[in-house]
Design goal:
By secondary structure, this protein is α/β, with parallel strands linked by helices. The protein has two domains: 236 residues, 3-Layer(aba) Sandwich (Rossmann fold), CATH 3.40.50; 211 residues, P-loop containing nucleotide triphosphate hydrolases (Rossmann fold). Helix content is 44%, strand content 15%. The chain has an eight-stranded mixed β-sheet with strand order 1-8-2-7-6-3-5-4, with helices on both faces. The chain has a seven-stranded parallel β-sheet with strand order 11-12-10-13-14-9-15, with helices on both faces. Strand 13, helix 16 and strand 14 form a beta-alpha-beta unit. Helix 3 packs across helix 6 and helix 12 crosses helix 18. The protein is elongated. It starts with a strand and ends in a 13-residue tail after the last helix. The relative contact order is 0.12. The N terminus and C terminus are likely disordered. It binds adenosine-5'-diphosphate and magnesium ion (MG). Adenosine-5'-diphosphate binds next to helix 3.
Length: 489
């Protein structure tokens, strides 16, 4: 874990020693407990009320600096909890001096945001963009619930008069898009931000870099110089000259790098399971999650096939996806899964890469991912776009090392997934039976495959092989394809 703090004006901080550990887990905090941060008891309580336990990296770094009165440039990935990183210190300072029109948060407009999302497709999901101002307001209200803070949203496309009325009530916090805020500053009688103590530019990179510039300049002109300014963003490519626009004073730059990360709405579990009990534990888990869509990842084609047959024998309709299926069969499998005909997809990594795998409620790692990137890739199939999702990673006595490596990379500890002991006892026999049936079917399949063994081999050198591993090429992006001798996944 490492958030790097450096003076924005100073030299770049040196790269961290352990690249692998330099990861950020989004949202759900993986840093220290909130109770170790210098927040007042009222806020400590709300933080617990809203369900935060550990602070995220950006919060850990930014909150103390903000409370010390520093200006801040905060950079961390979408979903890493930047809102609370600026809202908490502002609320705390406001509590000491509860004046109206105390802080203003400016966020990009809806329209431009939609347009920008085309330019920055990877940085902000559409749903987040279109409701950014409201999301910020909601967080301020949730985090300020014990303080009685009043917050209002000023965005375009909404009746100006109604907003003017809301502003006349002198809210404590204003969350606004630049154009409409400027409109009110110019035209709404009695409204000014001359008492403002905090200005936040959220998604600052966009606000400063794009067409917003001139409007921001106008707004900044009428704000008091004696204030704190926070710039928060998922990326910060803006030139220093443009940052000057925001007239920061000796800012501290808090940057959380994130090579791999998982999102906050993803709950990550591990399931300790002796190798011997793995199948029954899987079966019980899958049964307990019936009705939800899931992908079960395995490490080998063989496991994929066996589990499919085993679950089917238990009347759970599973569909396999692996590299020994032709591309068209794989697409067929996916379509079946997507159309809801089957709610359980059993897949290997290789087969899953490069294909448009649908999003699911739950990802189960039956075979532990052999490297952390695979883990991130697999669990990324759930908990997208703010939706909740779960991942359950099965860990046998032989997987501990991999497991620890994954936890290190995601920068957090997974929670234990509990399986009902009684269910295990109840299902043990039928799972064993299903396993036997699956083994017989597998043997038959292999035998019929064996008949064509020679033919396959020849095909392997030709077009068919290409088709089988096409997804590999997608991952390796331009690198020559390596021939895998053993361990087809
Ligand atoms: P960002 O602005 O960095 O994209 P947000 O501030 O919108 O991220 O936060 C993303 C989600 O994470 C929100 O649902 C928020 O409530 C949640 N969150 C923020 N901080 C924490 C935390 N310390 N623990 C758990 N959840 C958190
Ligand atoms: Mg944000």
């Amino acid at each position: 874990m490492s958030a790097r703090s450096s003076e924005a004006s100073g030299s770049r901080s040196s790269s961290p020693k352990h690249e692998e550990a330099n990861e950020e887990t989004q949202g759900e905090g993986s840093g220290p407990l909130f109770s170790t941060l210098p927040l007042i008891p009222e806020l400590q309580k709300t933080v617990l009320d809203v369900g935060y336990k550990n602070a995220t990296e950006i919060q850990t770094q930014a909150i103390p600096a903000a409370l010390e009165g520093r200006d801040i440039i905060g950079v961390a990935k979408t979903g890493s909890g930047k809102t609370a990183a600026f809202a908490l210190p502002i609320l705390q300072k406001w509590w000491e001096d509860p004046k109206p029109l105390y802080a203003c948060v400016i966020a990009p407009t809806r329209y431009l945001s939609l347009f920008l999302s085309d330019l920055y497709p990877l940085t902000l999901p559409l749903t987040l963009l279109s409701e950014l101002a409201f999301q910020i307001q909601k967080q301020f209200e949730a985090l300020g619930a014990n303080l009685g803070v009043r917050c209002c949203v000023i965005i375009g496309g909404v009746n100006m008069m109604e907003q003017a009325v809301a502003l006349a009530k002198r809210p404590h916090i204003v969350v606004a898009t630049p154009g409409r805020l400027q409109d009110h500053l110019e035209h709404t009688k009695g409204f000014s931000l001359r008492t403002l103590k905090y200005l936040v530019l959220d998604e600052a990179d966009r606000l400063l870099d794009m067409d917003f510039g001139p409007i921001l300049d106008k707004i900044l002109k009428v704000l008091p110089k004696e204030r704190n300014t926070f710039l928060f963003s998922a990326t910060m490519t803006t030139k220093v000259a443009k940052l000057q626009r925001a007239s920061l004073v000796n800012p501290i730059k808090v940057e959380v790098s994130s090579k791999y990360s998982t999102v906050s709405t993803l709950r990550q579990y591990y399931l300790l399971s002796p190798l011997k009990q793995k199948e029954v534990m899987l079966a019980v888990t899958v049964k307990s999650l019936a009705g939800q869509s899931m992908i079960i990842f395995t490490n080998t084609v063989n496991d994929t096939m066996r589990l499919t047959l085993l679950l089917r024998a238990l009347s759970l309709s599973a569909i396999p996806l692996h590299s020994k299926l032709s591309q068209s069969n794989r697409l067929g499998a996916l379509n079946k899964f997507r159309s809801g005909g089957r709610s359980i997809l059993i897949a290997t990594d290789v087969a899953a890469r490069g294909l448009d795998i649908p999003l699911v409620d739950i990802v189960i790692n039956y075979g532990i991912p052999q490297n952390s990137k695979d883990y991130i890739h697999r669990v990324g199939r759930t908990a997208r776009a703010g939706r909740a999702g779960k991942s359950i990673t099965m860990v046998t006595q032989y997987d501990l090392e991999f497991f620890q490596r994954i936890e290190k990379v995601i920068g957090k500890q997974m929670e234990a997934w509990h399986v009902d002991e009684e269910q295990i006892a109840l299902m043990a026999e039928s799972v064993e039976e299903a396993g036997r049936a699956a083994a017989i079917e597998m043997r038959e399949l292999n035998m019929s495959a064996g008949k064509h063994g020679k033919k396959r081999k020849r095909d392997d050198r030709g077009g068919r092989r290409d088709e089988m591993d096409r997804d590999d090429d997608v991952i390796q992006a331009g690198l020559p394809r390596k021939r895998r001798k053993s361990h087809q996944r």
